[in-house]
Amino acid sequence: MNFLPRPSQRAGERAEQQINQSGKPRGIFRRGLTGALAAAAALSLSFVPQGSPEAQAQSSMGSLSSSAGDLEDLAGIINGIVGGLQNGGGGGAGTAPSTDTRLSERSFTVNGKTRKALVKMPKSGLRSNLPVVFMFGGWQHDANKARSYAGLENTAAGDSAIIVYPEPVRSTFKGETYPAWGGAPYATNTTRSADVAFFRQIVSTLASEGKADRNRVYATGLSNGGGMALGLGCAAPDLVKGVVGVSGAYYTPTVSNCVNASVPTMIIHGTGDAIVNYNGGSRHGASYLSINQVHRQFAARNKCDVSKAPSASTKGNITTYRYQGCAVSTVVKKVEGGGHTWYPSNPDAAQESWNFFK
């Protein structure tokens, strides 16, 4: 009986906007919920009116088939949903923490354009000369989405720092429009320099209000946002005192033509990342650097001895690489088998970022 649609290849191409989790729920919970979702999916397909948008969307997913492969495809999707529920969503479909009076949406004007950012003041009630932590989300993620999975507010940063979630410019790529950071091939309506000017304006405004300490500004981010964090360290080492890229997309324009100055840098990346390969490659018609290339590039500007291989130490599934003789810390944490994700644990991306900054 033909009632299960085969997921389209296009859905696979959009995996870049999804945040994966390494943990997989097992046992009765997984089997029970998987079965319930499968039954619900079958029933929903049976009762969708043929002329509805839902029916049109289903028909666009490809021809109907009753093969075992279709069942496996659907099971894979359902298992992914179950995994997200079991692991707290990991940010792919997360819900932003509840709104409170410490969170505000601010507008900033730079070069005649007004852009926005979510600004979260610390829980402690401190209001002056505070460190600033920028969090940049992945491609297709707006500020609220980035906040929903970042977890920074649950670290000590939430008690003592201003956490800023800037809003990316929406760019149209291959007929679809999504938020994106400059330097990536899909960031058609912005550039790295335009985004850096925006970040400078945010810091300048918060500092002029007496809230921010210009000497304690940091940046972290996921995927396209991870590339932007290191791109900020590359283009404006005078502005930031530390950057962290998590599953970063280091497209050549993002981390090239750098200012020759040092900035503490950490990269967290998984060897199983199928979206941005650890060893480099190309995507969306543009090349991106390998993790080793990015590490060496930043190490050279950080006055490390790049004539020798970095030291390596392994604990569990994480191998930490450090160049020697550096003016400032220059670290890679290689996550064995890790995917394209903002890691919730082993390593905890939010906690690792804050530990590196403080």
UniProtKB/TrEMBL annotation:
<keyword id="KW-0858">Xylan degradation</keyword>
<keyword id="KW-0964">Secreted</keyword>
<keyword id="KW-0378">Hydrolase</keyword>
<keyword id="KW-0624">Polysaccharide degradation</keyword>
<dbReference type="GO" id="GO:0030600">
    <property type="term" value="F:feruloyl esterase activity"/>
</dbReference>
<keyword id="KW-0732">Signal</keyword>
<dbReference type="GO" id="GO:0045493">
    <property type="term" value="P:xylan catabolic process"/>
</dbReference>
<dbReference type="InterPro" id="IPR003140">
    <property type="entry name" value="PLipase/COase/thioEstase"/>
</dbReference>
<feature type="region of interest" description="Disordered">
    <location>
        <begin position="1"/>
        <end position="27"/>
    </location>
</feature>
<dbReference type="GO" id="GO:0005576">
    <property type="term" value="C:extracellular region"/>
</dbReference>
<protein>
    <submittedName>
        <fullName>Putative polyhydroxybutyrate depolymerase</fullName>
    </submittedName>
</protein>
<keyword id="KW-0119">Carbohydrate metabolism</keyword>
<dbReference type="InterPro" id="IPR043595">
    <property type="entry name" value="FaeB/C/D"/>
</dbReference>
<dbReference type="InterPro" id="IPR029058">
    <property type="entry name" value="AB_hydrolase_fold"/>
</dbReference>
<dbReference type="Pfam" id="PF02230">
    <property type="entry name" value="Abhydrolase_2"/>
</dbReference>
<feature type="domain" description="Phospholipase/carboxylesterase/thioesterase">
    <location>
        <begin position="199"/>
        <end position="293"/>
    </location>
</feature>
